[in-house]
Specification:
The chain has 336 residues and is mainly α. It has one domain. It is built from 15 helices and no strands. The longest helix has 30 residues, at 280-309.
Length: 336
């Protein structure tokens, strides 16, 4: 928790000092075109629905036909919990779903981890396509772009090796035979969450859904850029998608600060021709803050409604990842 709050304060300080005119930034933020805000919000909700469907696909080897209603509501709840340090949304929501659907918690947590791996791999692949065919359009001969390309290739190789290792562990589980029974049981339940890697149909569906998720996020960002910058290219939105992922990965509550920092960096350094020549830094700050509000605040508000319907509270769910699912109110969780 201390690290999360410390990073938030540090990034907030850097952002505050880097904006010449916060009055101008506020003016830019509230002057976006509403029709594109609405379209951007529509893609946000589509993105959440696709995540819920993919979660169910990855869990299908553990339990087929998990309620889409539960998957969707808990997908939004994840984002609410991630706004609370130490960002334990994946674990807490997985424990709640495991309790509701009567499946091993370790399997659900593993499936959530597999989601993150698929997300990273998909972003790297889409961004690699962008770098090969469109990277030269916005940052020719850029040292920063060369650095990004280098790390993207390395990340792709590491992820592929990780997939191979997990597949081998799933195929040969005799290596767990010498472990204590309790540890072995938990480990095998955890590996069950990766069982979709051995199911060709489930893996194919998950990969297609992963591509759809990140293309939807790119469309979401493109709409939000259109709200502020007329004529902003869709391929530029793919670049913004890839670079803001880095910011969201910084463990600040809800990714706040990191998202804005990297979007500001991209807009000012790579898309200057779409920005004001007088004060691009203040304009970028207004755009990034407006984009964050449209992308995250409605999701968190709807997620709070779903939390209430699940019989959860912020205080209870913030302790869930540490104390386990025993503290969840049982009667409401059994409702289907």
């Amino acid at each position: 928790m201390g690290l999360s709050l410390g990073l938030t304060l540090l990034i907030g300080y850097i952002l505050y000092r880097g904006v010449p005119d916060w009055g101008q930034a506020w003016s830019v933020m509230i002057q976006g075109r509403p029709v594109f805000f609405l379209a951007g919000f529509g893609f946000v909700m589509l993105h959440m629905l696709l995540r819920a469907v993919r979660w169910g696909v990855l869990l299908s080897p553990v339990k087929p036909r998990i309620s889409l209603k539960s998957l969707f509501s808990l997908t939004l709840v994840k984002y609410v919990i991630n706004a609370i340090p130490p960002r334990a949304g994946e674990v807490a929501a997985s424990l709640v779903l495991a309790r509701k659907e009567n499946v091993p918690a370790a399997s659900v947590i593993a499936a959530s981890l597999l989601e993150r791996i698929l997300d990273t791999l998909t972003v790297v692949v889409i961004f690699g396509f962008y770098l090969v065919f469109f990277g030269h359009l916005y940052a020719p001969n850029s040292e920063l772009m060369l650095t990004i390309q280098n790390y993207s290739v390395k990340g792709f190789i590491i992820l592929c090796l990780g997939f191979v290792m997990i597949s081998l562990l799933l195929r040969r589980q005799n290596w767990t035979s010498r472990m204590p029974t309790r540890i072995r049981r938990v480990l095998l339940s955890f590996l069950e969450g990766f069982r979709a890697l051995q199911r060709g149909g489930a893996l194919f569906q998950a990969m297609v859904l992963s591509a759809a998720i990140w293309l939807t996020i790119s469309l979401q960002l493109w709409c939000l850029m259109q709200a502020y910058l007329v004529g902003f290219p869709f391929m530029g939105a793919i670049f913004l998608m890839a670079i803001t992922v880095v910011g969201v990965a910084i463990p600040t509550p809800g990714g706040v600060g990191g998202f804005q920092f990297f979007m500001d960096l991209a807009l000012v350094n790579f898309f200057s021709k779409y920005m004001s020549s007088q004060d691009p830094h203040s304009q970028a700050a207004g755009i990034s803050n407006g984009s964050y509000i449209i992308s995250m605040i409605p999701v968190m508000l709807i997620g709070l409604v779903f939390m209430n319907r699940e019989g959860l509270s912020l205080s209870r769910v913030s302790r869930l990842a540490v104390q386990g699912p025993e503290n969840i109110k049982q009667p409401r969780l059994q409702e289907k």
